[in-house]
Amino acid sequence: MPEKASCPTTTAGPFTVRCGRLRRRIIPDRIRYVESDARKVIVHGADGEVISFYGRMSDMEETLCPCGFYRIHRCFLVSLSHVSSFSDSEVFMDGGETLILSRYRRSGFLSCFG
């Protein structure tokens, strides 16, 4: 059964994450996409900045989905405002990246993007 689409409705303020001994402030409007690699979460900023920290993708999804993000794959959470185009199996970001779009999440993505 396909996942129910949760389309953006609000904006969220900055949040903090722990990167080693530091705490970093992240502003959702400046994120292009978030990637998961094993236990690490990698945030790709619109300005090219990359922030990596230990965390769970589900926590990032809960924080970011209400403010214009959609989880297109178990490894990717994208800002809908930074998606330039997509195909049946890929999402193309405005920075030139090509990300995988899972079949399971395609219909929800289409309803939010369209």
Give a description of the structure.
By secondary structure, this protein is α+β, with helices and mostly antiparallel strands. It has one domain (15-113): OB fold (Dihydrolipoamide Acetyltransferase, E2P) (Beta Barrel), CATH 2.40.50.1020. The protein contains two helices and ten strands. β6 (69-73) and β7 form a beta hairpin. It has helices at 57-64, 103-113, and strands at residues 15-19, 22-26, 31-37, 40-45, 50-54, 69-73, 76-79, 83-86, 90-93, 98-100.
Give the topology, please.
Layout: E1 15-19, E2 22-26, E3 31-37, E4 40-45, E5 50-54, H1 57-64, E6 69-73, E7 76-79, E8 83-86, E9 90-93, E10 98-100, H2 103-113
Write a short abstract of this structure.
This protein has 114 residues and is an alpha+beta fold. It has a single domain, classed as OB fold (Dihydrolipoamide Acetyltransferase, E2P).
Class per helix and strand makeup: alpha+beta
Number of strands: 10
Structural Rg: 13 Å
Total number of domains: 1
Major pleated sheet? 5 strands, antiparallel
Any idea what the CATH superfamily is called? LytTr DNA-binding domain
The number of distinct helices, counting runs of at least 4 residues, comes to 2
Q: What does the overall shape look like?
A: globular
Along the chain, the helix and strand elements come as EEEEEHEEEEEH
Query: Architecture, CATH level 2?
Result: Beta Barrel
Helical amount among residues, as a percent range?
A: 10-25%
In whole angstroms, the N-to-C terminal distance is 21 Å
The strand line-up of the biggest sheet is 5-4-3-7-6
Compute the average pLDDT: 88
CATH first level: Mainly Beta
CATH topology: OB fold (Dihydrolipoamide Acetyltransferase, E2P)
Return residue spans where pLDDT drops below 50 for at least 5 consecutive residues. Answer: none
Strand residues, percent: 35-45%
